[in-house]
Design a protein that fits this description.
Strand content: 5-15%
Oligomer: single chain
Number of helices: 8
Radius of gyration: 49 Å
Distance between the termini: 137 Å
Order of helices and strands: HEEEEHEEEHHHHHH
Strand order of the largest sheet: 5-6-2-3-4-1-7
Helix content: 55-70%
Largest sheet: 7 strands, mixed
Number of domains: 2
């Protein structure tokens, strides 16, 4: 008798617990239907896999409502997501024009929720353009971070595949074969020999010119000519008539002659300097080309040298 009573009590307790649990679930589920919410709608141009009715809607991370319905938009292209938003968040959604909806992952479960947050820059213009009038107040959407990464990777892949790698490889191989053929040509050795002979000849010419002009000192002669011109001007200043005019013309011609001589000296010095630099450059070029013949094809342009003023 006692055993049957115990079984009866256990059964009553189990049934009561079950009824309480079911009642609690019904009460929790029904409470959502009695919540005071405002419907908003948003449209996505990407897959909403992982987003289900009942998924959370968050305003900058704060729970703001739930997804009420997911369906195809009237244009047959976009995905329409109807949201039930709590009244305290309605003012922000209506008055803040920088708010955009975005699909976000909820942990590592693969489930998604709708995140509403402020955007700036290009993200404000990325929302899908509608060809119909929505039934509820709309919050524009922006593509998810995963979609943005996927699009960027797709663009990179398309650009890589558009590169003619085979053509570039063939061109590089042909160029290397041509360079090898040119470097093996016997005319390269002849050209290097001619460079060397030209350099040696230029050095000899420069040496001879330096010897010829080593003892030439035109500067004192120019100074004496200038001094004589000044004395001549002082002399004919005391003369009159035609003689004075002739002496003046002669003095002017002599002065021009002195200036020409001075310019000749300066020009000769500049010529010697340039000739010396040319000899040095030819000598360096000859040595570099002999050591590395490939410089004839792959070397860069020469560095610019500062230009010295040629004014006396």
């Amino acid at each position: 008798m006692s055993t049957e009573v115990k079984k009866f009590r256990v059964g009553i307790f189990s049934i009561g617990a079950l009824l309480i649990g079911v009642g609690g679930l019904i009460w929790l589920g029904a409470s959502r239907f009695f919540e005071d919410t405002v419907p908003f709608v948003t449209y996505f141009s990407e897959s909403v896999q992982g987003l289900d009715p009942g998924s959370s809607v968050k305003y900058r991370g704060v729970p703001a409502g739930r997804v009420a319905k997911i369906s195809i938009a009237p244009d047959g292209n976009l995905i329409e997501v109807l949201m039930d938003v709590k009244p305290e968040f309605v003012w922000y959604l209506v008055n803040d024009r920088t708010l955009r909806t975005q699909l976000q992952l909820s942990g590592i479960t693969g489930l998604r929720y709708v995140e509403i947050d402020r955007r700036s820059g290009e993200a404000l213009e990325e929302y899908p353009k509608l060809s119909f009038e929505p039934q509820y107040q709309m919050v524009p959407s922006t593509r998810s971070d995963f979609k943005a990464i996927q699009t960027a990777l797709g663009d990179i892949y398309d650009r890589i595949m558009s590169i003619d790698l085979q053509g570039i490889s063939n061109d590089a191989r042909a160029m290397l074969q041509s360079a090898n053929t040119v470097l093996r040509d016997d005319r390269i050795d002849k050209m290097l020999t001619n460079f060397k002979m030209t350099s040696e000849t230029t050095v000899k010419v420069a040496t001879n010119v330096e010897k010829m002009t080593r003892d030439v000192t035109l500067a004192p002669a120019v100074e004496n000519a200038t001094r004589a011109t000044e004395e001549a001007r002082a002399l004919f200043a005391n003369l009159n008539g035609e003689t004075r005019q002739q002496l003046g013309e002669a003095a002017e011609q002599f002065n021009h002659l002195a200036q020409s001589a001075q310019q000749l000296v300066v020009g000769l010095q500049l010529t010697l300097d340039r000739l010396d630099r040319t000899v040095g450059s030819l000598r360096t070029l000859t040595e570099n080309v002999r050591e590395q013949p490939s410089l004839l094809l792959f070397s860069g342009p020469p560095e610019e040298r500062p230009v010295k003023s040629e004014e006396p």
